[in-house]
Amino acid sequence: MPSISEYPYVTTITTRWMDNDIYGHVNNVAYYSFFDSAANQFLIEHGLDIHSGPIIGLVVESKCEYHEPLAYPQVLRAGVRVDKLGNRAVTYGIAIFGSSERAAAHGHFVHVFVDRVTRKPTPIPDQIRSALASISLHSA
Amino acid sequence: MPSISEYPYVTTITTRWMDNDIYGHVNNVAYYSFFDSAANQFLIEHGLDIHSGPIIGLVVESKCEYHEPLAYPQVLRAGVRVDKLGNRAVTYGIAIFGSSERAAAHGHFVHVFVDRVTRKPTPIPDQIRSALASISLHSA
Amino acid sequence: MPSISEYPYVTTITTRWMDNDIYGHVNNVAYYSFFDSAANQFLIEHGLDIHSGPIIGLVVESKCEYHEPLAYPQVLRAGVRVDKLGNRAVTYGIAIFGSSERAAAHGHFVHVFVDRVTRKPTPIPDQIRSALASISLHSA
Amino acid sequence: MPSISEYPYVTTITTRWMDNDIYGHVNNVAYYSFFDSAANQFLIEHGLDIHSGPIIGLVVESKCEYHEPLAYPQVLRAGVRVDKLGNRAVTYGIAIFGSSERAAAHGHFVHVFVDRVTRKPTPIPDQIRSALASISLHSA
Description:
Thiol Ester Dehydrase, Chain A, globular, 5-stranded antiparallel sheet, alpha+beta, homotetramer
């Protein structure tokens, strides 16, 4: 189970009543909502304009492994790093933390950047690439 | 549009990527998720055990008026007060705030407390009643 | 509790695992998702282009009363009618049905139609107005 | 991209307004909701009692690859098969279909069955095991 120290960007996530499923824990689906909320927040803080910018990030793959249950009303932290930075795609490593510094769940997802109108893959803009490189654990 | 000063209990809510709908704003549905997350958080902090306690709160009515759009990745505040405190039911007044002290949306919902097993209405336990009375704007 | 015969437009809704909350029933929030999915489906079938059309419908008010619990994996029906048809706004009456012809929940929501770009209120286009009038229980 | 013929159990899923994200397509998160809704529906139809049965299925891993966009108000189909059937765990292969017989997305998730109270792993009950074996593409 990864440690929070392996994730350079950390953001806070408040849980919601409806995150708890019938078994009393945060539903497996909600974790992916934490994943894309955390990564997109990073992108937006570094220049992505989700409302009208020329490029958008589309998710082409995602995965999650669940280690410990979480439950509303816990306040969570999501850690984000870059595991692979390509020309037009990025793989984020993401983990979700409850009160422990060990991840309750971790996984990854892949964004392919495309032109908003044509939806054709397009190089990651310099400003965003540079931000993504800054949270890569490997040399860029 | 109500002011945040009219709501004695205030909690923070982080928005999520998927809260934004195709028109770029937090979907009308999500506000109700903020409503029941904020009120239940208050209840839990004051003794409600949602996992195994003998009573549970069921929603029998809810309403919301939307004044200004909100959008992920804004951090929001939800204000909660008690508008009406009955023997077995409570009406919460709730409002959602973005960066302004004026509500972006406000509404109410009604909890009827029932026995977890029989689902029959049951008096609100003293500890919770007393907490609810403390955030009523009217004398209890 | 209204009957399904009072709703001229009826559509099917499949429930989801995550609709059930910790108490084992469809969460109060999910009903509003049924409301706007059913009404927008009607609009789309009658000409609204949610992806790039010149006008969009914004929700300014919604309300729901809950009569009977529902639970995943039930298949539901949503009934839609028009309760009030203004120049730039429409009030839908909506009800959700399980296996009974009596509503498990019913309520309404109000769409104000606005220009997609300026977000200023704008008259409802003729084609859509005419469709809405056709599911009004009152003379248009 | 897998074909629907590779999935012995197929169920219908209606999309919702809020499934569409700001980019106009079903959000990546929603697919996981389709996954666990489809698989649990199969389990419930074959004897799992999610409300009070002695065992429950917990998700310990999930993954999805996205091939083609989908969008509300499309009606979808989810195909379910069993890729691996262990003593206490099952891996479902799941795919989501729009109008094509080729999957718009496919992936898997793993259920570990546990005792509802102790949450300790427990053998899959015979009735459910037998049902799961019946949708395995391999000999059991």
